[in-house]
Amino acid sequence: MFKINCLNPISDVGLKNFSKLYEVTTDVKEAQGILVRSASMHEMEIPENLLAVARAGAGVNNIPLDKCAEKGVVVFNTPGANANGVKELVIAGLLLAARDVVGGIDWVKANSDNTDIAKAAEKEKKNFAGSEIMGKKLGVIGLGAIGVKVANAAVALGMDVYGYDPYLSVNAAWSLSRSVKHVLNVDDIYAQCDYITIHVPLLDSTKGMINAVSIAKMKEGVVILNFARDLLANEKDVLEGLQSGKIARYVSDFPNPTTAGQKGCIVIPHLGASTEESEDNCAVMAVQELMDYLENGNIRNSVNYPACDMGVCSKAGRVAIFHKNIANMITQFTAAFGEKGINISEMTNKSRGDVAYTMIDVESAPTEDMMEVLRRIEGVFRVRIVK
User: Fold this and answer.
1) Residue 323's closest CA among 308, 344, 311, 338?
2) Is the pLDDT of residue 58 over 90?
3) Domain span including residue 222
4) What average pLDDT does the segment 58-65 reach?
5) What are the Cα distances from residue 256, in Å, to 26, 37, 121, 159, 235?
6) C-alpha 312 chain-centroid distance
7) CATH number at residue 326
8) 201 pLDDT exceeds 90?
């Protein structure tokens, strides 16, 4: 029986996918798996028996990835599961920025007691009319699951779309509309586009990428949309751009004291992935990832360990080894099995940066004594018997 702890409320649509081999527990210390959304795990002591964490969403800034990797705890996320929900809100943001819908609605509320409001509206509407997005240039920075959907939707709305992603995946390339112009330098986005939307992860290399330097390269009256992470933009520089008129609108899904209520800022209360459908999709994917890993040792969509899939074990046993990505590890593993007279029928090894993951199917059931031999090898973080 595997025990699962939910650090946040998780959609029942996802939890119903757990088989009878699983039990949801309120005691995190006894859990082999954790499901989480936004709860911070950085101050949390990682339980010794914890095997995996699944984030029902894309961002994993709330999870100590390196700490988990060193303990052999696999961290999963659910890329693409909430992409449609975010895409739809980005398109809404585009329209809200182009036509001053928010300002118009606020005017109507403020004049709700005016018995002649219809006549007054005819005089005032020119202040909120805005412009159409058809034919305007949209720059999409980051062509992952969300960026591709945004780019394709904008093409369908008649926009001239430019996309930038130096790490464009094969799957993303296949999904991207042929009408999207793929540029190789982000400065081309800054220089040419009327609207710019960012869809990249928050890394040291991307933090504050929208700043005074990049803003200076942009067109006069540019609209910037940020539905990825607030720290991707230096929002003090953004406010200066708004005050100078360089930036016409800043649309963000991340309310904070810097931008909330500021002129030119349309700040949405983090609704991007909050639809019922997105939460259901993320929960289902997270549960599926946990089950495949806990039952079979397979890793899919991990952010701290490499992808690795050996299907369902048909041999006597399967052993999973988490270790440093250094020379001579495989030789030591195979030698250890050989010394115990255990024949290896199939093996795979994958690495990711400083860490690696090895799965070995054997023709006789692995024993705890055998596991202890493997654990004593220098550079090994964790050894588990999957079957």
Assistant:
1) 308
2) no
3) 83-267
4) 91
5) 32, 20, 32, 30, 10
6) 28
7) 3.30.70.260
8) no
